[in-house]
Write a structure and sequence with these properties.
113 residues; mainly alpha; two-stranded antiparallel sheet; 5 helices; 43% helix
Length: 113
């Protein structure tokens, strides 16, 4: 995946989400900011015709029992409540939004060749 690639979801420009946050973990992935996590939550909501998904909806989507972690991922960086979103959760949310390819086995196979 190129850092200079442009990504869109249903005509929505992803300028608020840096391309390096879309990379595979060992291929130059950059930790998303809380703002980027919030933008992805909006994009997920728009995919189903809502303004955004709620913290509880995101928690259910990614297999968490409640929305506490979602609130931590969207808290201001540097605050006592802030926590980095795990790569696997970020990647899963990107997949649900249709932003990244879900066929990672092909990407791994291509790299091994």
């Amino acid at each position: 995946m190129s850092d200079s690639a442009q990504y869109t979801v249903k005509g929505k420009d992803l300028n608020g989400i840096r391309n390096t946050t879309l990379n595979l973990f060992n291929s130059g992935w950059t930790q998303p900011t809380p703002e980027e996590v919030r933008e992805l939550i909006v994009l997920l909501g728009q995919k189903i015709g809502a303004d955004k998904l709620t913290g509880s909806q995101i928690a259910n989507l990614v297999g968490l029992k409640d929305s506490r972690n979602v609130r931590k991922w969207t808290a201001p960086a540097g605050s006592s409540n802030y926590a980095k979103i795990p790569y696997a959760v970020w990647r899963l949310m990107l997949s649900y939004a249709g932003i990244v390819d879900t066929d990672l086995l092909s990407a791994i196979k291509d790299k091994a060749a």
